[in-house]
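Quick review question:
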């Protein structure tokens, strides 16, 4: 009799343990599901808060080049026909003429791209160049000698003309992207990119990089954009956009004012500036 009682008690405890374990598994599953929902919400928050009513306006743009390097909005036969500086007014006038876009339409809105060619909105619909939600234009480059062209944050002597995106609105620079496509390769400047500037994010169609402070600028393969042959025109497609998936792309950017400077510098294939100057910091040179 006592044996039957013990058996029933053991079975009862086993059922209680099974129910407890089932409850724990359900609890863990609920927590994991909740975390997944939170993660998805965080990943798409920028799109949700900004897509319908945020535009970035009042842009200015200046482009400079280093020694022996020139560019223009049109191809030419000789180096002397190219220039060393371009303003936003010149570039925007060309965009308006080529697209028929209303001059008042330009106001960047959040977009994204996977191939640096087709740009889409949050809902996945494609947005075209003439809508003014991103900028697209072509720069034609020519150089007096063979060179590798880099984007540089370094200033030329006596000037502040190094690459940068400037705004009094926090987060704007971090949310911006600028891409340079030459042939089948694209280099993407991400101002808010990796803290470790020794590496870059790469994909099958291009690579992403960011630049150090001007005094720390080092020319390397990451900030190299393309190669030029002497006295040969090379068309490079430039895109400027506000990356909707970036966590910095929030309502705080609404109607922000900003300016962009781009500066290009030529090096040899060993990343030495063509004026013969080694771009590495003095401490790094001394250690060798």
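Suggested answer, residue by residue:
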């Amino acid at each position: 009799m006592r044996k039957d009682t013990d058996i029933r008690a053991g079975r009862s405890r086993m059922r209680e343990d099974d129910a407890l374990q089932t409850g724990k598994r359900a609890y863990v599953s609920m927590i994991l599901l909740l975390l997944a929902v939170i993660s998805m919400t965080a990943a798409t928050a920028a799109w949700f808060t900004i897509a319908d009513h945020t535009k970035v306006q009042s842009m200015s743009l200046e482009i400079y080049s280093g020694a022996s390097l020139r560019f223009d909005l049109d191809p030419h036969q000789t180096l002397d026909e190219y220039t060393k500086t371009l303003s936003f007014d010149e570039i925007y006038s060309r965009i308006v003429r080529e697209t028929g876009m209303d001059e008042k339409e330009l106001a960047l809105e959040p977009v994204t791209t996977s191939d640096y060619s087709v740009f889409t909105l949050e809902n996945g619909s494609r947005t075209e160049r003439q809508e003014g939600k991103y900028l697209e234009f072509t720069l034609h480059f020519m150089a007096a000698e063979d060179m590798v062209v880099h984007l540089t944050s370094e200033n030329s002597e006596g000037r502040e003309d190094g690459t940068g995106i400037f705004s009094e609105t926090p987060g704007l620079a971090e949310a911006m992207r600028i891409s340079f496509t030459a042939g089948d390769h694209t280099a993407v400047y991400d101002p808010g990119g990796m803290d470790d500037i020794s590496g870059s994010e790469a994909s099958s169609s291009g690579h992403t990089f960011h630049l150090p402070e001007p005094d720390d600028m080092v020319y390397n393969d990451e900030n190299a954009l393309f190669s030029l042959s002497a006295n040969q025109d090379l068309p490079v497609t430039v895109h400027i956009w506000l990356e909707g998936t970036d966590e910095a792309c929030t309502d705080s950017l609404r109607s922000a004012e900003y300016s962009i400077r781009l500066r290009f510098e030529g090096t040899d294939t060993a990343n030495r500036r063509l004026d013969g100057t080694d771009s590495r910091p003095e401490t790094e040179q001394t250690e060798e």
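Why it works: The first strand starts at residue 59 and ends at 65. The two ends are 89 Å apart (CA to CA).
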